[in-house]
Amino acid sequence: MVTKLEKVDVVVVGTGWAGGVVSAELAKAGYKVVALERGKNQTRDDYIGVKDELRYTNRYEMMQNLSSETITSRNNLDEVALPVRTRKEMMAGNDLGGGSVHWAGASYRWKPYDFEIRSKTIERYGKAKIPEGMTIQDWGITYDEMEKYYDRWEKTAGISGEPDPLGPDRSSDYPNPPMKESPPIKLFKEGAKKLGLHPFQVPAGNLSQGYTNPDGEVMNACMYCAFCTQYGCDFGAKSDPLVTVLPTAQKTGNFEARVGSYVRRVLYKNGKATGVLYVNTLTGEEFEQPADVVVLAAFTFTNNRLLLLSGIGKPYDPKTRKGVIGRNYNGQFGITFLGARGYFEDKKFNYYAGAGALGGAVGDYAGDNFDHTNVDFINGGGIEMRQYGKGAIASNHVPSGTPGWGADYKKKSLHYTYRSLVVWYTSANMAWWHNYVDLDPTYKDDYGDPLLRITFKYTDQDRNIAKFGIEKSREILEAMGADIIDEDQVPEEFDHVYDGGHYAGGVIMGTDPSTSAVNNYLQMWDAENIFVVGAANFPQFAGHHPTETVGALAYRAAEGIEKYLKEGGPLVARKEVSTHV
Amino acid sequence: MADNPNDLHEHKGMSRRTFMKNTGLVAGGVVGGGLIGGLLTNQLQQKPEVQTATDNGQIQDARVFFSRGQDFDILAAATERIYPKDDSGPGAIELGVPYFIDKQLSTEWGVNAKEYMKGPFAVYTTNTGNHNITKDQNKQGPNAETQVPAPTPRYQTKMTRSEIFVTGLRELDNVAQKEFGASFVKITGEQQDEVLRMFEDGKVELKGIGSKNFFNMLLQTTLEGAYADPVYGGNKNMMGWKMKEYPGPRASYAAQIEVEEFVKLDQQSLRNYQGH
Ligand SMILES: Cc1cc2nc3c(=O)[nH]c(=O)nc-3n(C[C@H](O)[C@H](O)[C@H](O)COP(=O)(O)OP(=O)(O)OC[C@H]3O[C@@H](n4cnc5c(N)ncnc54)[C@H](O)[C@@H]3O)c2cc1C
Ligand code: SF4
After folding, report:
1. Are the beta carbons of A213 and A155 closer than 8 angstroms?
2. Residue A506: left if φ>0, alpha if ψ -120 to 50, beta else—which one?
3. Which tens digit of pLDDT belongs to each residue from A310-365?
């Protein structure tokens, strides 16, 4: 039996940055908002005194419990997809605040080029630069239009940084100064400068000082405790929804976050959503939550899956290359974040200390900041040297050629514990007709609903950009004076490991309803009162971390939802153009 | 937890004072917001003495997962080859690694409680790919030498990790018998290495798992046992951390983050950190 609850103005699925921002903005505007979160409640108290590497880093304490639901994965259309069974291979947020709590905090704006990639690539290099089958497209919004939302999110989150000298125009400075410059970061910056590059401090969601955001939320200064990525912050010093947007929403009296609420369907009638169906994960009771507006902010996998399960929007079919839901699946997988590890015989860094987003970066090889005429790929990526701070289990790297275990390994792994640094390239990932998501024909969750199936493979674009990044990373390590440099190998094929939280696409934004699922307010073309918010909106992935763009898009969506609640109807006129596929 | 009293008891030479020494540094790093003040004060109200060591020696070193002593002995011997005692310090056995693994195998991790374990299961033998590549906190970062391209998602067996361990350890023994005519625990160290290498290279048929996967799991859990917080039964007396000069969990490293020279700190465990 399904219990029908009282109608609210807005029901939001998911409580990460996407759901949190939308909830806060609409609750502030006076609308009744209910957010549904499948996982448990969590507060800062849950993180005090539990800096435990085994539990959080190696056993994935904060990640989704996969016993009921995971994804299935394959490379090619004619293969049988298999479930990604372990949390080592599949990391997604699960509790109040979502993955936005256990993220590291590296916060980049994406570039004007990223938002108009198709037009700008053709403009500079001609049509032939985009290979057949690469389905990249403009977003239907420009950087200039996004700027105010970026600015707003940075202020909410209290980002600590200094502008990328080669970055896009900004209307104001970061709200907080950059984090401390540790000796490895200094070394990285000096090395980069020797090569004529333009280093800057990674803009961080770890706060460099105490800060009160525009909503009145107080955050504290980061302690460089190093138990950061894959952990919650016990100091309220990491920008996350628990210390920002969720309390802001709560304060209005218009907001309720319901945990243990697993959403199974968006209810849909006559072209509009009427609410959502969810189950209480502790009691098994089923509820219907009616609402005027349904917001899906449940991260890429669930956003896609709920639309497919609910039969909303036309599913993408790779054979005909038609349909939209599931189209242009993209993200940063194992082939991104490759680079090199340098070993320094005469140095010993205090690398037990660090923070999620502490690091140095270089933007010279990002986006279209360099000429691509003579390279066999488009787009680029940031280069980073991060000081996460290492736990004792994580810090056992040895130069290649050393045995992987035994006496020699022990000796060398102890010797090199604090003597190695990684430089990597956070390369972009372009969209292709053959990379998409749909529902799996075989594997199901506890409720009997099919799992989401991912079909994804690497292309020459991916391998070429990775090779380029590895070379650049090596050059910087050489300039830093590393004695031994081990380059990453470029993998031939995607290995079905989903561990960085940078998965995107499937519910992409655009100007054309035949190639996009949502308009530039993230309103669905096919259902005017459903808004889908998150990395699922990315038509392709830029060469920087995603979350700041997710946060900015959420502010954009909140503006659109408010407009919709006042005026109704589609916020952008349908403009059917037949484009490439 | 009561792990540490016993641990400390073993090392009589160790100074208890050391646990307090660095709180000054921590306090030095405290700046900003009112909230944090209270928070840190709480965290810093650590009792200087960890506890009084009781006289129960290694009372926690007993098997709770492996029913056969023989399986456990094979495990112990194998971990010691992977992480041997040498002049830098104790090996796996002295660090309590076999007991660490034994305990881990009866946790939710050991029984795959939070993994997707619904069928159908694709049955692979050696071809499952390496589902236990070593990944560090820099996840996607350079560890190319351990990245084996896999044709499918990596973990595709119906077996739980604890079942894999029992099966794998017994197979170590079978291979030792076959190759050297004696049990794994009876052959020489070099011979044990040879057996382990056969597993590492995937040369042994291990149905449903792949011997390489078992080996990687053994390797990973051995390192975890050497370096995880002592509360889990390994890293005895924080000896693993001492060898590594790893200080353990602290409220703050703000005082060290900008320092050029390596700052060697005394070890603190989770128990210290939680203020017991
Ligand atoms: C270890 C790690 C480090 C990262 N570091 C960085 C970084 O440094 N920089 C960066 O830019 N990005 C980083 N990311 C990515 C970042 O976490 C995500 O981009 C961001 O959290 C996305 O926010 P979101 O609101 O879309 O999703 P989430 O924050 O994950 O929120 C989605 C919520 O929806 C809930 N949900 C899902 N399905 C359902 C359902 N059916 N019913 C009810 N609720 C549901 C989930 O439980 C979750 O709480 C990292 C990710 C990981 C895993
Ligand atoms: S490193 Fe800083 S932001 Fe990260 S958990 Fe520690 S104190 Fe919080």
Report:
1. yes
2. left
3. 999 999 999 999 999 999 999 999 899 999 999 999 999 999 999 999 999 999 99
Which of these, A450, A501, A476, lies nearest to A332 by C-alpha position? A501
**Which ligand has the nearest atom to the CA of A557?**
1
Query: Does A226 contact B at CB distance below 8 Å?
Result: yes
Q: Which residues are CB-neighbours of A541 under 8 A, at least 6 positions away?
A: A330, A331, A332, A428, A429, A430, A502, A504, A505
pLDDT the model gives residue B139: 31
Q: Please compute the mean of the pLDDT values over residues B92-103 and round it to a whole number.
A: 98
Question: Which candidate in B23, B137, B231 is best for mutational testing of the A interface (most A CBs within 10 A)?
Answer: B137
Taking the Cβ of residue A297 and every Cβ of chain B, the question of whether any pair is shorter than 8 Å is answered with no
| CB-defined site of ligand 2, < 6 Å | A 206, 222-228, 231, 233, 235, 237-238, 355-356
Residue A148: what are its φ and ψ, rounded to 5°? -65, -30
Q: Measured in Å, how far apart are chain A's first and last C-alpha atoms?
A: 44
What pLDDT does residue A577 have? 62
Q: Which residue has the tokens 């709200």?
A: A175
Where does the pLDDT of residue A63 fall: very low under 50, low under 70, confident under 90, or very high at 90 and above?
very high
Domains of chain A and any CATH numbers? 2-55+92-567 (3.50.50.60)
Atom of ligand 1 nearest to the CA of A298: 34
How many CA atoms within 13 Å lie on the side-chain side of A127?
3
The answer to whether the CB atoms of B139 and A49 lie below 8 A apart is no
Strand partners, B125: none
Compute, in angstroms, the gap from residue A550 CA to the centroid of ligand 2: 22
- Nearest CB among A89, A229, A389 relative to B155 is that of A89
Across the interface, whether the CB atoms of B116 and A392 are under 8 A apart is answered no
Among the listed residues A142, A48, A55, A124, the one whose alpha carbon sits nearest the alpha carbon of residue A556: A142
Residues of A in contact with B149 (CB under 8 A): 491-493, 495
Atom 2 (ligand 2) nearest CA: A222
Distances B107 to A51, B21, B65 between C-alpha atoms, Å: 19, 35, 10
Give the residue numbers of A marked as catalytic.
Answer: 502
Q: CB burial class (10 A; 0-12, 13-18, 19+) of residue B121? A: middle
CA A427/CA A210 separation, integer angstroms = 33
* Chain B CA closest to residue A336: B140
Residue in B with minimal Cα distance to A236: B36
Amino acid, res. A470: I
Please count the other Cβ atoms lying within 10 Å of the Cβ belonging to residue A406: 17
What are the CA-CA distances from residue B237 to residues B15, B94, B230 (Å)? 12, 10, 7
Token reading at B264: 């060697």
The pLDDT confidence band at residue B122, using thresholds 50, 70 and 90, is: confident
Count of residues making up chain B = 276
Quote the ligand 2 centre to A235 CA distance (angstroms).
Answer: 7
Contact B153 A221 (CB under 8 A): no
| pTM of the full structure | 0.92
Least confident of A299-308, A415-424, B51-60, B98-107: B51-60
Q: CB distance A86–B256 less than 8 Å?
A: no
Distance B126 CA to ligand 1 centre (A): 34
Contact list, A80 vs chain B (CB under 8 Å): 122
